[in-house]
Design a protein that fits this description.
273 residues; mainly alpha; Four Helix Bundle (Hemerythrin (Met), subunit A); 9 helices
Length: 273
């Protein structure tokens, strides 16, 4: 279902609110006294509330609380990213994180808004239990994608901080970023939560596909299912290498970013297959 002009305008307001938050976040990195993190958090909260209102209105229009259209699900994904950020910020206090995760939100939201056509992935079933199971599958998948996106943002922060250390630069940017040790600790927990959520999503998706046969008897050989399995294996290897300390530091960040691109390809690139 294509977005109307009014809906695209509403998304524009959401993007503008995030861009305003991004500008404040960047300013906070360079001048934390004039641009406080508390003010930045308020701006992000305003953007999140506007985002939430848009999703509610969109859900009412579509008559469903689940967005399974590609463009709609991407917009829900960016909402989940902001939600995960809020949880991470509350638990670990990473004031510089908005400057790195908001660009991901903005790019994804713009991509969803200007997409000329969308793919209808509607899962037809009158069974309320099946609809409930599908809801858990979709929500857990989007939460895992959001956690992995935050993990990428933290990884980029790690690379910048490492470069600052090697160059012996101790300016405002250096002071605004968390230490490498703190970054690795937070990133590890975020990726672990994302992997657990992804695992839950795949298990529920596989069981429901086998039980309902909505995707046909050969659902397990469809390209999207195959790539979903490959992506899970890639994240499983990533988690194993991290926990066993086989790789760490910059190489682990590069692998995290690479696997995230594989995730994006599985999510969007194989949607038409």
């Amino acid at each position: 279902m294509q977005l109307t002009f009014l809906e695209q305008t509403a998304l524009g307001v959401v993007v503008f609110a995030y861009l305003l938050s991004l500008g404040w976040a960047i300013a906070h990195l360079t001048s934390s006294r004039r641009f406080t993190i508390t003010q930045g958090r308020v701006l992000i909260l305003v953007a999140f509330v506007i985002h939430t209102i848009y999703l509610i209105v969109r859900a009412v229009k579509l008559g469903t609380g689940i967005f399974v259209d590609i463009s709609d699900s991407i917009i829900v994904l960016t909402w989940c990213v902001t939600l995960i950020y809020g949880a991470v910020d509350r638990a670990f206090k990473v004031p510089s994180l908005p400057a790195f995760f908001i660009p991901i939100n903005v790019l994804l939201t713009i991509g969803a808004a200007v997409r000329l056509e969308t793919l209808d992935l509607h899962f037809e079933s009158d069974d309320r239990f099946v609809q409930g199971v599908l809801s858990i599958h979709i929500v857990s998948a989007l939460v895992s994608y959001a956690a992995f996106a935050i993990g990428v943002a933290l990884g980029i922060m790690y690379l910048i901080q490492e470069r600052q250390l090697k160059a012996k630069r101790t300016g405002a940017l250096f002071r605004g970023l968390p230490s490498l040790e703190a970054n690795e600790r937070v990133r590890g927990r975020v990726l672990g939560a994302g992997f657990a959520s992804l695992t839950l999503s795949l298990i529920i998706g596989a069981l429901s596909a086998q039980w309902t046969q909505q995707l046909g008897q050969d659902w397990f050989v469809q390209s999207k299912i195959i790539f979903a399995g490959i992506t899970w294996v890639a994240y499983a290897v990533l988690m194993h290498l991290r926990l066993s300390s086989v790789i760490a530091g910059r190489r682990l960040v590069y692998m995290t970013i690479g696997v995230f691109f594989l995730l994006l390809f599985t999510y969007v690139g194989t949607a038409h297959a």
